[in-house]
Design a protein that fits this description.
It is built from seven helices and nine strands. By secondary structure, it is of the alpha/beta class. The chain has one domain. It has a five-stranded mixed β-sheet with strand order 6-9-8-4-7. It has a two-stranded antiparallel sheet with strand order 1-2. Helix 7 links the parallel strand 8 and strand 9. The longest helix is centred in the N-terminal third of the chain and has 17 residues.
Length: 224
């Protein structure tokens, strides 16, 4: 699929989902970034790095905890879903050639598909959609919310802007990309790993890998 076609589809989806969004529960509002009297979230961001090329490339769908923390992290109203995600793209490109074992910790990537399938994306010639378990943009880092406020991060996962954690947005993306060559790329800590596997099992996604948090400093890839 070409970049321009992806952006058009994702922007339409984002508009639809924002129109049907709900405010967070009152006790969760203190943890979620707000701007212009609205609550910040994003469902379908895409890396704009491949915009100029606009090639008909395969697609990596990343699934992490949440998109960002702090103010001014949403794409502009003009672009709606386009964001610069260079560092995440670089991590993916650097790690995929080194897939060795089915162990997600200590810097090893967990592999749910044939390594040959995953390695085809190692050249970096892919469009990148950065989805997340929680669409909310938090005021503080996801790690701090998780570690300091206990069950709050579970509520942020369970109560997204569309109502509940029913995997609907992931089903929508799967349907949109059904004829495309797609690698599902989970990343994060243990809670993300468990929910990512739940998504893969529920939606029958067989071509997946799981990595450490792409937003953090890269871990060493151990060879065993």
């Amino acid at each position: 699929m070409k970049y321009c076609d992806l952006v058009e589809c994702l922007s339409t989806l984002e508009c639809e989902w924002r129109k049907n969004s709900k405010e967070p529960a009152e006790h969760l509002k203190q943890f979620i970034q707000s701007s212009n009297s609205s609550w910040d979230f994003i469902y379908f961001p895409i890396d704009s790095s491949t915009k100029e090329n606009n090639a008909d490339w395969p697609i990596v769908v990343c699934i992490g905890a949440n998109f960002a923390d702090g103010p001014d992290k949403l794409p502009s109203a003009k672009t709606l879903v386009e964001s610069k995600l260079t560092s995440c793209r670089t991590r993916i490109k650097n790690h995929l050639p080194q897939i060795e074992k089915k162990q997600p910790w200590k810097g090893k990537i967990c592999l749910g598909c044939r390594s040959e399938f995953a390695k085809q994306f190692a050249k970096g010639e892919f469009h990148l959609i950065m989805m997340n378990l929680s669409p909310w943009i938090t005021k503080e880092s996801w790690k701090k919310v998780r570690d300091k406020y206990g069950g709050v991060f579970l509520e942020l996962l369970a109560r997204p802007p569309h109502g509940n954690f029913n995997l609907k947005e992931f089903k929508v993306i799967k349907k949109l990309l059904k004829s495309q060559n797609v690698l599902w790329y989970g990343h994060g800590n243990s809670e993300v790993y468990g929910l990512f596997l739940h998504i893969c099992d529920s939606l029958d996604l067989v071509n997946w890998v799981f990595d450490s948090n792409l937003a953090q400093k890269p871990l060493k890839i151990w060879r065993v």
